[in-house]
Design a protein that fits this description.
Layout: H1 3-10, E1 17-22, E2 28-34, H2 37-45, H3 52-60, E3 63-68, H4 72-86, E4 102-105, E5 113-116, E6 125-127, H5 133-146, H6 158-162, H7 170-173, H8 187-201, H9 206-221, H10 225-239, E7 255-263, E8 266-275, E9 278-287, H11 295-309, E10 316-318, E11 332-334, H12 339-369, H13 372-383, E12 391-400, E13 403-413, E14 416-417, E15 423-426, H14 435-453, E16 460-464, H15 467-479, E17 487-492, E18 497-500, E19 503-507, H16 514-547, H17 555-565, H18 568-573, H19 576-583, H20 586-596, H21 598-604
Parallel strand pairs: 7-10, 10-11, 12-16, 16-17
Antiparallel strand pairs: 1-2, 1-3, 4-5, 4-6, 7-8, 8-9, 12-13, 13-14, 13-15, 17-18, 18-19
Helix pairs in contact: 9-10, 13-16, 14-15, 19-20, 20-21
Length: 605
């Protein structure tokens, strides 16, 4: 099992939902439902499967997506919708004829109540759908037992009844119907029964359960245990009964649903696409923004993206508040307060929140597996950064009385120094000691090159200096369009003060905390790297001024002298014989000796 899949499975909730398995090309290869997501998905990976097809499926899984729902029935219905839409290779494909049944309350005088698999576009009321046909039949059986209803298809208009066109049938004589066809039951009386029945179908089963328990007790008292057991089975089914579903609705036909969630500084937007009363698309995105966009603007941006990506032409959009959306022609925004639309909005919010929770759990797992990341998380929190600073760069300037101006850039990755990424800069455009101008030149060169070569940018820049150097750095980032995309701070040397752009009040970090230690390590490493480079430049300059002026002394001779004596000062102190031996040539050795000791040559003469 791959590491990323293991992390996903470990973080799954133990709630109802649907899981989608994808291959390496992000193609959906299997859709499944679960009452307990974590338990069900784990079962695919914790054992060897006897069926070759199942094992082949597991071998191809590279990514897992989940959709949370409220009930096991919702999971079953959503699975049905998604299998029909995507037709995954490893699913038993459901054809269009395989649909779940509904209970229909027909729009007619003296309405009939019956089951159907075809939902007509009429004014009848439909309840369901019912993944369990047994549950639906039990409900219909109880309804007909409690309320005598007609089951004939006679056109019971007031005129036909008054003209005496119909006669009561056997159902009337056995007490299953009250004979509305002959006017023996009024339409108002019949309608009152229908209203009670719709309450029961809608989930208000308390009256029915009381009736059944009384009946079961009577059978038990009369020692009719078989009949009592049959009633007990009906009670069990009704107690688990759930008639409302956000996944498939008889009321909501074609809509888009969007909701937004925020957690720990991150924002996610979830999208549901409903067609013909069924959810056929669920997608969640992380919204990255650097300005001060309002939630309404964020929702508007996401809506444009989703409707384009999924080619939606739905005219009604269900949202938690009115989005900032320019092209509203032909669109209707609904902010529901209750009912099926409110349930859809809550389902969308639930999936957006789970998306953010899953991201946080992945980060936490990553930190546990990589102890250095815990310090970075603390640094992110202490500095109020929007991103985990996995890549940090620190700059420090060095010069000696305005000469040999250089700057060092050290790079930390995953909380540790990355020496191969260190860079030093010999300042080209600044004359004299001018730290502000030096900082502008160096940062311009550094980030212009990174942008031109398409290399990764840091999440945090640390400037070794106070407000002046920080302001110079901010000018450069603003000019390159990077301000707001990269966090930047300055650290003043005297009191370890942390400065933010355009904020005169410094931040003081805990002296014993890991965050200040990381920043001090960055600053000290940049100083060390810069000073080393500066010394090398001065040493090279000193060598050049000391040996380059000796006429006739070539590069090979200079190399031999430095290899033997290490410094120019030691060369100056060396005897004529030692110089001759080092160079392997009597004349060149004497030339070097008398260049540094001209008085010796005069005395010899």
């Amino acid at each position: 099992m791959e590491k990323n899949l293991k992390n996903i499975v470990e973080n799954l909730p133990d709630t109802p939902g649907v899981y989608l398995y994808k291959d390496k090309d992000q193609k959906i290869i299997y859709v499944g439902k679960a009452k307990h997501l974590k338990r069900r998905v784990s079962s695919y990976f914790n054992r060897i499967h006897e069926r070759g097809k199942t094992q082949m499926l597991v071998n191809k899984i590279r990514h897992i997506e989940t959709i949370l729902v409220e009930t096991e029935w919702d999971a079953l219905l959503l699975e049905n919708n998604l299998i029909k839409k995507y037709q995954p290779r490893y699913n038993i494909l459901l054809k269009d004829g395989k649909t779940y049944p509904w209970i229909c309350v027909k729009n007619e005088p003296f309405p009939r109540i019956f089951s159907t698999r075809i939902r007509m576009r009429d004014s009848s009321r439909y309840f369901g759908p019912y993944p369990s046909v047994r549950l639906m039949n039990t409900l219909l059986e109880l309804i007909h037992e409690l309320y005598p209803l007609r089951n004939c298809a006679l056109p019971l208009s007031e005129k036909n009844i008054q003209q005496g066109k119909f006669k009561v049938c056997l159902q009337y004589h056995i007490g299953k119907c009250k004979g509305p066809c002959e006017g023996l039951q009024t339409e108002n009386e019949y309608g009152e029964d229908i209203r009670h029945i719709m309450q029961i179908i809608g989930g208000n089963t308390s009256q029915v359960l009381r009736y059944l328990r009384d009946k079961m007790d009577k059978y038990s008292t009369a020692l009719a245990f078989e009949k009592a057991h049959a009633i007990k089975q009906k009670i069990d089914i009704l107690e688990n009964y759930q008639s409302k579903s956000a996944v498939v609705s008889a009321v909501v036909h074609r809509v888009d649903v969007l909701n937004i969630a925020e957690q720990d500084g991150e924002t996610a937007v979830n999208y549901l696409q409903v067609v013909n009363g069924s959810i056929i698309q669920v997608h969640t995105i992380l919204v990255e923004y650097y300005g001060d966009e309002s939630p309404a603007e964020i929702l508007g941006f996401a809506l444009r993206d989703f409707r384009t990506q999924f080619a939606s032409d739905n005219k009604e959009i269900i949202v938690p508040f009115e989005p900032d959306y320019a092209n509203t022609e032909g669109l209707h925004f609904t902010v529901p307060m209750q009912g099926d639309k409110k349930t859809l909005l809550q389902l969308s919010e639930k999936n957006a929140k789970y998306f953010l929770l899953e991201r946080q759990q992945k980060k936490n797992n990553y930190v546990k597996q990589n102890p250095d990341k815990e310090r970075l998380q603390t640094l992110q929190k202490d500095l109020r950064l929007s991103e985990l600073p996995m890549h940090i760069e620190c700059f420090d300037n060095s010069n000696l009385q305005g000469t040999n101006a250089v700057s060092a850039c050290v790079v930390f990755k995953n909380g540790k120094p990355s020496p191969k990424d260190y860079r030093h800069f010999q300042v080209k455009t600044v004359i004299g000691a001018n730290d502000f101008a030096t900082m502008r030149e160096v940062l311009t060169r550094r980030y212009t090159r990174l942008l031109a070569e398409g290399l990764s940018l840091p999440q945090l820049i640390v400037i070794d200096g106070g407000k002046g150097q920080l302001s110079s750095a901010v000018e450069v980032l603003s000019g390159l369009g990077l301000m707001g995309k990269i966090a930047i701070i300055g650290i003043a040397k005297r009191l370890e003060e942390i400065y933010y752009p355009n904020d005169p009040v410094p931040l003081y970090l805990d002296k014993m905390g890991s965050s200040l230690k990381i920043i001090q390590h960055l600053r000290d490493e940049a100083h060390r790297f810069g000073i080393t480079y500066h010394r090398n430049l001065r040493s090279k300059e000193s060598l050049q001024s000391g040996l380059d002026n000796i006429f006739g002394l070539g590069e090979k001779s200079k190399y031999l002298l430095l290899q033997t004596f290490k410094t120019v000062e030691e060369i100056k102190k060396a005897s004529e014989e030692a110089l001759q031996e080092a160079l392997g040539h009597r004349g060149r050795g004497s030339k070097v000796y008398y260049f540094f000791n001209p008085l010796s040559q005069t005395n010899d003469e």
